[in-house]
Amino acid sequence: MIRMHPPNVWRAMARPGYLLSAWPWRSAGYLLTGVVTGVVVLVGIVTSAAAGAVLAPALVGLPLLLGTALAGIPVAALERLRLRLVDPGPAPDPHESPGEPGLRAWLSTRLRERATWREFGHALLFAGVLWPVDALALAFFLLGPSTVVATPLVVATAGEAKVLKVWLVSGWPAAFGFAVLGLALLVLGAYLLGVAAGARAGLARLLVASREADLGARVAELARSRVRLVDAFEAERRRIERDLHDGAQQRLVALTMTLGLARLDAPPGPLADQLDKAHAQAGTALAELRELIHGIHPRVLADYGLEAAVADAADRSAVPVDVGLELPGRLPQAVEAAAYFVVCEALANVGRHSGASRAEVSGGHRDGRLVLRIRDDGCGGARAGEGSGLTGLADRVSVLDGRLSLSSPPGGPTLLCVEIPCDPAS
Amino acid sequence: MTLRVDRPLRVVLAEDSVLLRDGLVGLLGRCGHEVVAAVGDAEALVTAVGEHDPDVVVTDVRMPPGFQDEGLHAAVRLRGERPALPVLVLSQYVQRRYAAELLDSGDGTGVGYLLKDRVGQVEEFIEALGEVADGGTVVDPEVVRQLLRRRRDPLERLTPREREVLALIAEGRSNSSIARELVVSEAAVGKHVSGILTKLDLPPADGTHRRVLAVLAYLRA
């Protein structure tokens, strides 16, 4: 997915034309409002904390202290607004909405949230450190160079000027020289302002903007791409099955037919024997190919659906299997395929490991879910861990928002249960 | 060459793979049969049967346009229209479900269901074709093998109504007679009968009527 990045001060500085754009002004505005806000926050926090502490014994102070702790929330909200000046990308509110209305619910939600305390930290940092830094940046990168540029003006009105309170200037050439130097400093300052504002905004974003929203969007996209991947995988299996069926299988049948005829025509002797052998080998190849194709994607599943395909899998099982499966009709292809392969894998495991004498596949479609249970009377102890085909199948089921659960205590019985939400296909 | 048959048959062949169709036409011709029409899809099969009124139909299961089980459905449909028409269905793989559907069409006689592989066993294939044309029933050994793997005690699985019907079959009653006796429609009886045959895992042996086998299962139980 290509993501369009909204412009921000960093990207603006990387481009020509930064000096003539609004970005230096936006940076200055961001830092200036930062200073103002910071001072207000400092005064507010100190006052309410002090008042709260003093009044705490009288109990009225406690709500004040609580209010102080929650002060980070409005400060952060304001900071998210200010961010738009230099970094207009989305800065989502990190707070959850309280489950129910009322002050109590709101308070208990906020006090339990990590974001609240992160924002409180931000407010303290803002009041103690950040706004003075903003002020210094403004002084050095904007005010200082500006006064240097204004040297000729000062000379014109006062007769002489003390540039940056260091150099005394009274002559015009020197005054204009300083003005030119001031302009150069102003240009440099514009970039440094951008850097200061950008860095400051980056820090603020880290502290007050939700990171989960971004993460959530990525998770959603990943989930969608996983579904697409499984669909593509399934379509590919069907294509391979069709290609093998229409190609290799037909040719092999034709080959056995030709060999069969040739064998009849050949006079008894070594040639007939060789033809016999070739005919038998072609027949074996054909049988193997048929099994292979069946394993890739069985026709009965495509043609008749899950119920018939499960009955077919039960027929093929080495262990006798009782099938009690009733479905309202066809289900979505992906669901049928996933459920079918779970049943096949489970029955294969029953045959291989369980020592069971009997297995049972039961289930149906209830309350918008397909539910299948595969039970055997074997020795149990099955695990869905490493190397088990069940792990891959569990992934496949989870793509469909389904669940696969295995219960297999030592001594048995083993019960595998798969649930997939779905509606009957129309 | 021992392959020539005593009774030449007029065959309508449906097979979408040109390679196999040509091969089968050649094979049947070699044996003395006449392929009166060789078509590539199910619609053409139905048309060709109407046109040529053949002795026997040989059809693939999977054909255009859907490449699913069009051939099988065409065969079932043809037998619905002409119950006496012998049909031999070839399939790349065997499914009990397909076999059941086919054997339940008409009265279960004059049908065959074989793996396509068997055409390579030329003599057996030609023999099976003759059997089907004579009204016999031929089921692929692979289907039988699948059926035998299923659990036993078959009568346990019959509903009380199905057991009643089976008992009447054992008396040699026809479907219409059973319908009258039980005061149900003949279609309902047909449904019970196919239910019984399916539940009893009855692969009719060559030339033996399935109802007889059902009765045997009933008597042995």
UniProtKB/TrEMBL annotation, chain A:
Record's superkingdom? Bacteria
Principal EC category: transferase
- Enzyme Commission no: 2.7.13.3
Cellular component aspect of the GO annotation: membrane
- What Pfam families does the record point to? HisKA_3, Sensor
Keywords, A to Z? ATP-binding, Kinase, Membrane, Nucleotide-binding, Phosphoprotein, Transferase, Transmembrane, Transmembrane helix, Two-component regulatory system
Give me the reactions it catalyses.
ATP + protein L-histidine = ADP + protein N-phospho-L-histidine
Q: Which residues form the Signal transduction histidine kinase subgroup 3 dimerisation and phosphoacceptor domain?
A: 236-301
Q: Where are the transmembrane segments?
A: 30-52, 58-78, 120-143, 174-197
Q: Which Gene3D superfamilies match?
A: 1.20.5.1930, Histidine kinase-like ATPase, C-terminal domain
Which molecular function GO terms apply here? ATP binding; phosphorelay sensor kinase activity; protein dimerization activity
Boundaries of every Putative sensor domain copy:
30-207
The protein's name in its UniProt record: histidine kinase
Q: Which organism is it from?
A: Streptomyces viridochromogenes (strain DSM 40736 / JCM 4977 / BCRC 1201 / Tue 494)
TrEMBL record, chain B:
Q: Where is the Response regulatory domain?
A: 10-131
In the record, 4-aspartylphosphate modifications are located at: 60
Any one Gene Ontology MF annotation carried by this entry is:
DNA binding
The record's listing under InterPro entries reads: CheY-like_superfamily, NreC/VraR/RcsB-like_REC, Sig_transdc_resp-reg_receiver, Tscrpt_reg_LuxR_C, WalR-like
Gene Ontology biological-process entries: phosphorelay signal transduction system; regulation of DNA-templated transcription
Which segments constitute the HTH luxR-type domain?
A: 151-221
Q: Tell me the Gene3D superfamilies matching this sequence.
A: 3.40.50.2300
Tell me the keywords, alphabetical order: DNA-binding, Phosphoprotein, Transcription, Transcription regulation
UniProt-listed CDD domains = LuxR_C_like, REC_NarL-like
SUPFAM superfamilies (alphabetical): CheY-like
User: What is the protein's given name?
Assistant: Two-component system response regulator
